[in-house]
Specification:
14 helices, ten-stranded mixed β-sheet, single chain, alpha/beta
């Protein structure tokens, strides 16, 4: 396939909000790999997997698929699991941001959380059981914005609240909405992101589509960017970020993970579930992100890809990255986290954006696990099996969703030393390519 390689250096910077960028001052993160931000990040560094095969104890009747299940949660049967997960990370994110509530105008604290998926238990439970179920479950079941209302009310966030449902792009779209609230001066803080739990109806639907991966060893089922890939595994988890303007964070003495250099959403008007093999719209999305971020001396050093492990997604992303970045793509590291934590659907973008921010903080681009036979399209370094330890100043997070929704966020290392969070030591068992002998490094 012939791929144009434009000169990114010719792109002018067009983002008007560069003097006071939006920063990430708090992160709450949890999934099958761990119940808190640092546990998840340490597991990612090790290449650990949170995927297992579902059993009769899981609420999926006869379905037995590899899934990234959250098993550590002390589940409340009267509350949807996705809401419990989102509440869990909301508390962590607000604590991490070190908000001084005595000095915070709660009317200036907004909330932008993606709509949650319900579960389908009431469609097949006996009528007697349904009649005695708490009414709150029925309410949450069919009102996707319930999670936004619950979180903002419980934590006293009285500013604007919004809830987007944009399939697998929901987490990133919620972040975009939060950024725009801050830029429009509608809020001083925004709590944004998403949480999701596996729903039996969607598990069945993806099974009918033929996109769910399987393997004798469930941990190896999902293999993004590998020529033997066979689909994705579903996962559970949540991530919420506290966003604010850099000047606001500096004034209150906060410490930040990264700053948002650009955000962009486009729509690929091609097919409900399919992707354009030429990846023209995704290519344009990446170009616009680079242009808005003002990266005219080089492209992103790291891209956290959507990377589902399906044929269409993998090829479309690789073609788009090469087409958009040209020769700069030779210096770009690309990886997918879905091999080890699963596809978190609504929450995928926010969880992986949080991981990207941690990659910037600690200078570690995480590996794409289970990648042993890399796809040659685009000839990109997808970090097979081992991550790379290096300073990361510029990174992209991409999300591709059913309905043609394409969303990206460009993150930068904060340029103010006194504002930037200090890096934490990597896990002693981190899978670092640079520490391998030369022969194994070339193979990796």
């Amino acid at each position: 396939m012939a791929i144009d390689r434009p000169n990114i250096l010719a792109f002018p910077r067009t983002d008007p909000a560069v003097e006071d960028p939006i920063v990430i001052s708090g992160i709450g993160l949890a999934c099958s790999l761990g119940a808190d931000r640092e546990s998840v990040w340490q597991a990612i560094q090790m290449g650990a997997s949170g995927v297992r095969r579902t059993t009769s104890q899981d609420p999926f009747r006869s379905f037995r698929f590899p899934c990234g299940m959250v098993d550590w949660l002390d589940a409340d049967p009267d509350t949807l699991k996705s809401i419990q997960l989102t509440r869990h990370v909301a508390e962590a994110a607000l604590r991490d941001a070190d908000v001084d509530w005595a000095k915070t105008d709660r009317i200036r604290f907004a909330c932008s959380i993606a709509g949650q998926m319900g579960d389908m238990r009431y469609l097949y439970e006996p009528e007697a059981t349904r009649n005695h179920a708490p009414q709150s479950l029925w309410w949450n079941q069919f009102l996707p914005c319930s999670v936004t209302q619950i979180i903002s009310s419980e934590f006293g966030l009285w500013g604007p609240r919004t809830s987007h449902v944009v399939a697998c792009a929901s987490g990133l779209v919620s972040t975009l909405a939060g950024v725009r609230m801050l830029q429009a001066d509608e809020a001083d803080f925004v709590l944004c992101g998403a949480g999701d739990a596996i729903c039996e109806l969607f598990l069945a639907a993806f099974n009918r589509l033929g996109v769910l991966a399987d393997s004798p060893d469930p941990k190896l089922a999902c293999r993004p960017f590998d020529r033997s890939r066979c689909g994705f595994v579903m996962g559970e988890g949540a991530a919420l970020l506290v966003l604010e303007k850099r000047s606001h964070a500096e004034a209150r003495g906060a410490r930040v993970y990264a700053q948002l250099a650009a955000c962009q959403a486009l729509c690929q008007a091609y097919h409900l579930t399919g992707l354009d093999g030429e990846a023209e719209t995704l290519t344009e999305l990446i170009r616009q992100l680079v242009r808005k971020a003002g990266w005219f001396r080089g492209g992103p050093q790291y891209i956290n890809a959507h990377g589902t492990g399906t044929q269409q997604n993998d090829l479309s992303e690789l073609v788009a990255i090469r087409s958009a970045l040209g020769d700069f793509a030779d210096e770009t590291l690309v990886s997918s986290n879905k091999a080890v934590l699963g596809h978190l659907i609504n929450a995928a973008g926010s969880v992986e954006l949080a991981i990207t921010a941690l990659a910037i903080r600690d200078g570690f681009a995480p590996p794409t696990m289970h990648l042993t036979d890399p796809e040659t399209v685009g000839h990109l370094d997808c970090l097979p099996q081992y991550g790379s330890q290096k300073r990361i100043d510029r990174a992209l997070k991409l999300s591709l969703a059913f309905g043609g929704h394409l969303v990206g966020v460009a993150l930068e290392r904060c340029r103010l030393d006194g504002l930037r969070r200090q890096p934490l030591p990597l896990n002693p068992a981190a899978r670092i390519r640079e520490t391998l002998p030369e022969t194994r490094r070339r193979a990796a």
